[in-house]
Design brief:
Two copies of one chain form a homodimer. By secondary structure, chain A is of the alpha+beta class. Helix content of chain A is about 35%, strand content about 20%. A two-stranded antiparallel sheet of chain A has the order 1-2. The structure holds a DNA duplex.
Chain lengths: ~140, ~140
DNA sequence: TTCAAAATTGAAATCATTGTAAATAATAAA
DNA sequence: TTTATTATTTACAATGATTTCAATTTTGAA
């Protein structure tokens, strides 16, 4: 609790009860919660909670660099508190998202951490050649 | 045109004019169109076109294995006609998605095909350990 | 305590996608 | 060709996640 307060303050975020709870929820939940998941978990403790607060807060956290949206499938957005880039594993049955080791290198292995791998998806993000030509980057 | 007809028929899909146009659109557009993109392009030729037809058709194509949804960012769904798995590059400025070579191996390079790489995103998909334990797979 | 700024809230709006049922077109049988 | 059957397309309503916005509440400084 005090630890979370410190982390938020270091990033210039006022540690309101809602923000602390949301951060706590993101830390504890190993499956990368959606906005809905977060809302349902915290609503039990703070019944006056608004969904807008969840969206405001994850946006604030993302802007401040302590949170990263993970968009893999189904149009759903999940959130990852780890700032360091690392591979993810998404279950096609339950939709949960797990973190994998950063320097993971899977060649022929079909299994990792007990998960059965069926498909790999790699994407690079940046500025495409067309947009680079238009403006200076 | 005749070529597209054949491809569809081989997959057991009746080649209606809408389906041919949608397939054609997916082939020509190098940026992986969204459902909205497809609608706007084809609407010019077929003004009676319904958005539902776009969604029906991309679902049909996906089920038949000739199309793959690409979900990278922004909650948007784009479509990729290539059936073979390969890396993608998504532009953070314009949102367009480009195909990259299948066996691409980028280590320190910051550039590929003229695109500036800022971030890499790797994801594995399959059945997680929890779901495997529950049922047999 | 008072006041202004920041944070939270609920309700309405938006927007992509899905569901549904009617209309239309294509195909097969008589 | 006519009719019946089936597949396809369409319009419109419904859904659900997210955003907008104005009003209310909380906070912190003076």
């Amino acid at each position: 609790m005090e630890k979370i307060k410190k982390i938020l303050e270091e990033k210039g975020i006022k540690p309101s009860i809602q923000r602390i709870k949301i951060f706590e929820c993101l830390m504890c939940d190993g499956d990368h919660p959606t906005a809905k998941d977060i809302y349902e978990i915290i609503f039990k403790e703070i019944p006056t909670l608004s969904k807008t607060t969840i969206y405001n807060t994850v946006k604030l956290f993302t802007d401040k660099g302590i949170l990263k949206p993970v968009r893999i499938r189904e149009g759903e957005v999940r959130y990852d508190i780890e700032s360091d880039s690392h591979p993810h594993f998404r279950c096609n049955k339950c939709g949960k998202v797990f973190d994998l080791e950063k320097n993971l290198l899977i060649k022929e292995k079909k299994e990792i951490d007990g998960h059965l791998i069926e498909e790999k998806c790699v994407c690079y993000l940046g500025v495409c050649r067309n947009c680079r030509r238009k403006r200076e980057h």
